[in-house]
């Protein structure tokens, strides 16, 4: 029986979800919260004041969360100036100081008294904040850490001790052998040193900081009872053997509910997509943290123009370090109604729209970087040719449709992700 129907009158268990104040972390954790409520679980979503202020006006649907059994608790981030929130290191350091105090206080106050029916029975913590698992653990609570990245990144993090022992990297993550590739997972292409998550050759200090963050996240996972992953078990069964307590629960979807967007979503793009032919439109979006040079954005804009296909481009103002906008009136006139450019889009609805044929995004950017020019810029011709290759390859299309069907089945009742989430709920009640 569908849990949304089965548990309408049932409310057993209370799970606290702790989110890192970043778009790519808050959104999936809000989606997990929605999934938990379908099983009759009450959820408290703990985040920062900044995240709450950003998401509340953007989605205007926090009330929907509350109506579905999700209580939102916002705490100070400890920063004096709002501009400091744009500095990842300052934000990370501040959260490390203030969040533990609020977390422990919330757990103790909520769970005081033996007859309290609102007691928190389990905690889900975002992986960058995994060092806080000791707080709920010492109070006798079950804890799951949410890993928001892919299996390859987790496999790489787990392999850090072997990489150091084999003298492929220094103890601070600095690469030593650029000509050697390593195998992380079965059926995954071997990875070169310059493809490592923390590789940042233009800034060695940043590279070392990212490495130590990754190393710390992996280290803290050993304290969790379970590791929740936004994966699909059927896509890569061997990845589930990386750790004995992995629970793949993806794909995480909002399905029209509040999804934690930090920015106002321009829904006019959906009306524009309605007017485009089926499987015709290229969707371009690079998330909320990727940064590009003006030259690369110019190449992207010209590449989209050269495709002579409909395109929807999320060209938000933080995409470059330079002044906004990235395009001029002449460009808009040339592309005409064939192109739609917005500041931010309701991405899940866009990706589910029948007119979308291809998604160009930062998660696939490494594949573009296999053939950049000497200045590290992906040319307009390369962008055009790569997209055309994807859209014209019938094998790719067939594989994508098969993967889509598997992904849909895995989150339905009887699917592996559904079963894993159901198992977690039973353990945390």
From TrEMBL:
GO molecular function: quercetin 3-O-glucosyltransferase activity; quercetin 7-O-glucosyltransferase activity
Segments crossing the lipid bilayer: none
Alphabetic keyword roster: Transferase
InterPro entries linked: UDP_glucos_trans (IPR002213)
Pfam family, any one: UDPGT
Transferase among keywords: yes
Superkingdom assignment: Eukaryota
UniProt-listed Gene3D superfamilies: Glycogen Phosphorylase B (3.40.50.2000)
Family, per entry: Belongs to the UDP-glycosyltransferase family.
Name this protein carries in UniProt: UDP-glycosyltransferase 83A1-like
